[in-house]
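User: Hi! I'm working on a homework problem where we have to compare a predicted structure to a textbook description. Could you give me the structure for the chain below?
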Amino acid sequence: MKKFLALLMAAAMVLAMVACGNGGNNANSGGNNDQSNAGGDTNTGDNNNAGGTVTLKIGGIGPLTGDAAIYGNATYWGAQVAVDEINAMQSDIKIEYKFEDDEHDGEKAINAYRSLQDWDVDVIYGCTTSAPCLAVAGETFADRYFQLTPSASSTDVTAGRDNVFQICFTDPNQGVTAAKYIAENKMATKIAVIYNNADAYSTGIYEAFAAEAPNQGLEVVSVSTFADDKNPDFSVQVRDAQSAGAELVFLPIYYTPASNILKQAKDIGYAPKFFGADGMDGILTMNGFDLSLAEGLMLMTPFNAYSTDERTVTFIDSYKKLSNGVEPNQFAADGYDCIYAIYEAAKKAGIADGASHEDICAAMVAAFTDSSFSVDGLTGSGMTWSTSGEVSKEPVAVVIENGIYVNM
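Assistant: Happy to help. Predicted structure tokens:
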């Protein structure tokens, strides 16, 4: 009788294990169902562990709708290209991928994160923009999820959080690099700055630029601010730069307000040089934007979509197929590189299938900060990471000529 009961209990345990397997097996691994241009069927996951296969569930967060949607869709599609490539390899690591819309809002980003937790996510990819990423990073730190953001560049995102890493340049890095580049290339000596004082990204770049400018012999003759990227009127800021005699206007802002500044400068006949940071990337793909306004605009970016190297060309072709013909920007390339960095770190760490997210987090942190770990991507070769989560790679400055980027 005892032997029969033991056999019965063992059978019951097996049934329970089957029934309680990974609850996310039937989730849509291609992203948000409301995204109309998601590029078709993207159910790329494979939860079978035959032959030692490891399934890694990566959950992305970013704005698929709203004013910052160009950035969010770029990181979504860029990552999907990498997921598709990796899942087509003869590799023991397979990726399930799900992306949630945060509408560039901190509270909605938290809701997106909770949804990914319900999906039984292993690694967080995102957020796309700094303010939502700040909100989510506090949660992932407490819950011990590894997090890699493609484009949230505020140092506050990683500060005091050993589990949060960036693949983009930090805001201070961009500000210092911009000041040095302008001075070294003798582009101007009198500089005006227009920045968003309500945005961590914009403020961070401005503060670093303002601190470095005197060291480079640059005189900041005009500083003006705004507090809403939706503001259509920048006439006061533009006229202040003009009356101060600024030869160059530095715009550490996103492309939407920049497009209005460029138009209003032209309307009053003010034609200085304009220099932007990586948030300017995307201005050429704005609906209804007059491309002639961007002629001569300079910006810093780690990725030039008009390069002709084989990997870039292949990426662009795959990206356009997913996005219904949309041109990729640097955020797309950052997203692509994020997935490959996660994949390479998972290989190095020897992630086991079914490992807890806490164990995965510890293993990924160790891999990323190992001195022997580096990643060659679209946005940089030999990328490495410090224990602060900051990436090391070289920036590229481009100028817009005839509607395309040209390396400077």
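For your comparison, note the following. The two ends are 83 Å apart (CA to CA). Residues 69-88 form the longest helix (20 residues). Good luck with the assignment!
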